[in-house]
Design goal:
The chain is α+β, with helices and mostly antiparallel strands. About 20% of the residues lie in helices and about 35% in strands. It contains 6 helices and 13 strands. It is globular, with a radius of gyration of 19 Å.
Length: about 270
Amino acid sequence: MPVVDARILILCKTYPSPSGKYAETTCVAGMDEKGDLVRLFPVPFRLIAEEQQFKKWQWIKAKVEKAKKDHRPESFTIKTDTIEGGALVETGRNWGERRRLLSPVKPFINFDDIEAARQRDRISLALLKPKRILGLDIEPVSNPQWTEDDLAKLLGGQTQGGLFDKDDKPSIRTLRKLPYDFYYRYECGEGAATNAFRHKLVDWEVGALYLTCDQLYGDDWERHFRDKLERDIPSKDLMLLMGNQHRFQDQWLIISLIYPPHQLQGELF
């Protein structure tokens, strides 16, 4: 496919991860002007020019082309040097404009239907409205520190040849490794058809929330972190933006949390 100009509303940025080619990358997802979900990867977000960085719920313009090595239908390569930041869609009155923009994306109400649609139509991004959140699992990672291979990637290979001492690795000071993995447990369906699911949260906002709680509350971070993710966010009209993995496409992640306030009965957009 040729390179085309696109206008995309950003709905997701995942927490950065080390990359041998780009030092660090994040997966970005959003929707185009037709209401189709799109994935933009890889994006070395924190390494691109400040004027080309963008926020969740911001429109951007950029040149994109269908990803050549990623055959998932929603996956596109973005020319990062062409990014132009546009308007930020504010929450406004009861999320009115955000709701209107999201309206073409019909949410699934059962994860099993998402997986069936993947097998049938190869979809790799979907919006899911779970029945309820059961809880949050917090699991320590096997290695809370970056490996030497990760360090080399994050420094763009500069660690080779002893250019940096172990105590002088500046890139790592600005990209902390999260020492925990976070998983939502949730239910879909009604009555006898109710099923429980568990998926990993990789939303950048979740990672940033952990870092903020750790900085502000120290050893008491978990109580505040859980309060936000187990009580506050699920009390809203929560939807999960789901994305699968390129290499293992039957494995899904929660890549973004979208949580407008509940609408009152009869309330118009």
